[in-house]
Amino acid sequence: MIGNGKKDMAVIVIRDAEAITAALRQALEHANDEERPGLDRALALALAEAGVPDAELRGRWAERRIRAAGHDGPLDSVAAVKMLRTAEPGLSLRQAVQLSRDAAAAGGRRLG
After folding, report:
1. I want to staple 91 with a disulfide (CB 3.0 to 4.6 A). Which of 13, 72, 96, 110 is the partner?
2. Mean of pLDDT values over 6-15
3. DSSP string for residues in the chain
4. For residue 79, which phi and psi values (nearest 5 degrees)?
5. What is the pLDDT of residues 64-103, one digit of tens each?
6. Which residue ranges make up each domain of the chain?
7. Residue 69 in contact with residue 103, Cβ under 8 Å?
8. pLDDT for res 18
9. How many Å apart are CA 88 and CA 14, to the nearest integer?
């Protein structure tokens, strides 16, 4: 998920939403009455996630990396930035700060 430049944002967002929603739509075409409600719900969730901004996806990724590194405090703290840079040594300080801010912002917007 890490890119190449120290100056530019290094985390690249990869989306498979089109393929996932197409597969769910195809499954719905062949679904029986018992399967349909679950597939309808899955399709609705996939469509909702397809519209999530890149910054939020980067924030979610950064939060997972920060939390996996053992940080339980605020996601935009100095300690969180340090943990993120330790987990991902290729990140510049600027990139890690932005990602930790994205993580803090995304923390309040979770899929329900």
Report:
1. 96
2. 62
3. -B-S-SSS--BPP---HHHHHHHHHHHHHT--TTTHHHHHHHHHHHHHHHT--HHHHHHHHHHHHHHHTT--S-TTSHHHHHHHHHH-TT--HHHHHHHHHHHHHHTT----
4. -60, -40
5. 999 999 999 999 999 999 999 999 999 999 999 999 999 9
6. 12-51, 54-112
7. no
8. 86
9. 18
